[in-house]
Amino acid sequence: MPAMSKKSWLIICSPDRLHVTPIEANAATEEIVFPAEQSAETLGELFAHRLREIGYRGQPTIIALDSHICLAATMPHSGKRSTRNHQAMSFALEEFLPLPAEETVCDFVVFNNDALGVALEVNAIKPILDALENAAVKISSITPLAVLTLQQLAPAENRRQGRIIVWENNDQFEWFLLKEGQPALWKTLPATEDALVREIKMLVDSATPGGIGGITLVNPTPSVSFAAKEVVGEIPITTRTENVQQATMSAASDIVQGKRTQWIELCRDQLGEYDPYRALRNRLRLCAVAVVCLLFCTAAAFWIRAERYADLAVQYKKQQEAAFHEVFPGQQAPSGICKRLESELKKISGVTGATGAMPQIPSATLLLREVIAPLPQDMRYRITEIDLSEDRVSINAEVRHYGDDDKLVKALRDAGFEVEPPSTEQLGSKGFSTMINATRISKKKDLEGKKVK
Amino acid sequence: MKFNSNFLTAVLLVTAASVLVCGVWRDYHCCSLADKAAQNLQQCRQIAEQIQKLQSAPVQASVDGKTMNTLSTTISKAAEVAEIPESAIKRKDPQALRRIGKTSYLEQPTQVKLDKVTLEALVAFLCEIAYSEDNLKTTSLRLSAPRSKPKKDEPETWSAEVILTHLIFSVESP
Fold first, then answer.
1. pTM of the full predicted structure?
2. Does this complex have an ipTM over 0.85?
3. What pLDDT, in 10s, does the model give residues A205-236?
4. A146 band by pLDDT with thresholds 50, 70 and 90
């Protein structure tokens, strides 16, 4: 497959044919004749086939419009500021054209007091442009052929005064009035000697002194040149020999390369909606439909799966309720079953002491047993008071003999109590009263530890 | 027409994408809910199993405190079993609840004063209290012999001041 050429293309567009040529020196021009009243799709297939045959591979293309399908008028304006509103200018041009502004696309060459407006009927050219887009032609500009040619011919003319330049283009004369090097007036005349002579006479009769600097005839026939010189009067007339086709190519080449800007650009508004994907539009549409269907199907799959998860969550919730009712039958399951069960577990752990944090409350009854059991039984004594609390015991006793209290103390010490020295008081002949304070040893250390803390 | 077609396509694409995003979000949300429900179910089953095991364990504290009526009934029943006349019970004095250190337990002490009871009856009384279902423990006991000696045929009696304590499980509020 040959590498894609970087050259650009020029397509000269007439109502019933196209002339296609690459923008390069001495390039051959191919003519594509197409029948009228064909659909854009059919024309597109024809163009695509023929363009591919001559080597077109989607490069940028300038569409040059035949003068027959262009409309032009010179109109005054109220200042350059008003010319910035293109839509307003379009409506102003409407007064000079036989078509409403909504049906045309136009552009302007603006001067200080007036402007040249060039318009194109949209319906006349749209089918051809659509067909070219269907053929994957990359349209970069739409401009009148005559104006394109003039962009190359005009710089050679004197800019100081208004100048007329005329050349023959197929079956008509292109008549331009140049002002400041740009077209201020554009007419087409039948390519006859009489028509040209008549137009020159009208110009001579109407021109103000010094208004027209001269007339340039490009490639005139000798008879046309002679006839023109006969009627031109005092207006200087010159002839030029130019390769008009080459001039057109040069101008198109400069535009494509960005060296100059086209005076008239009609690839705008309704014609500016260039759709590079027109040929693929049906496939793209199908693709978009497929993507939409895929998205909806995927969304449906996610929704269905979500519903299944939701059902699963409901089942789990019911099982939680069943677990709750196993433990608390007859009670209504709360909304937060887990938290309720945690709370109940905490409660039941607390009341059963399963947490291990239940404080050990010493039993005074057990302490009484531990105190009474080791006391001697072979000695007469009387306990008058005994006070037991938290592993401390306080005994008030009456003994008969001095030293009997020591026996009580020794018995308690042997039983694992730490006993303070007793205080003893004589009761006369009845014996002695003794007070013994004791503490169970392992718990005493805990108590001292707590006191330190 | 082209604008409408493109606009309609764009609207359909945006709608489909939005529905898809909503579907994905809902799927994620419901998946999270189901996952959480599954975890909760497992947790609930574990906790229920532990609760069932503990429901058969002996209770050593209560969640609510004992009312005076309940305590009075327990004391009276124990006295009856120990053959202590009601007249010997001189005082039943409930005291204020107090927390035990930094634990989750409160103690509810009740002071009971008995007069002219034998040691045997007192021990029976205290044992009956200990074996009752009210989880009362004797935390303090003060026995005092009477000033005068008993008569020959009469058994020796004592005065007793007993503090019966009941544990209450109450989580400390922050």
1. 0.52
2. no
3. 876 655 788 899 999 989 888 888 888 888 88
4. very high
- CA–CA distance from B28 to each of A251, A256, B18, B36, B151 (Å)? 63, 55, 15, 12, 90
Tokens 């029976």 found at: B124
Q: Tell me the count of A-B CB pairs closer than 8 A.
A: 194
Tokens of A284: 């793209």
Q: What secondary structure does DSSP assign to A112-137, as a single string? A: SSEEEEEEEEHHHHHHHHHHHHHTT-
- Burial class of A349 by CB neighbour count within 10 A (0 to 12, 13 to 18, 19+): buried
In angstroms, rounded to a whole number, what is the distance separating the alpha carbons of residues B149 and A123? 139
H-only helix segments in A328-438: 337-352, 364-372, 404-414
For an interface test with B, give the residue of A365, A382, A435 to mutate (most B CBs within 10 A): A365
State how beta strands A138-144 and A60-65 pair. parallel
Q: Give residues 55 to 94 of A whose Cβ lies within 8 Å of B.
A: none
Count of alpha carbons within 13 Å of A229, Cβ hemisphere only? 10
- Rounded to whole angstroms, how far apart are CA atoms A44 and A31? 15
DSSP helix, strand, coil percent of chain A (3-state; round to 5): 45, 25, 30
Residue of A nearest to B52 (CA): A327
- Distance in Å from the first CA to the final CA of chain A: 97
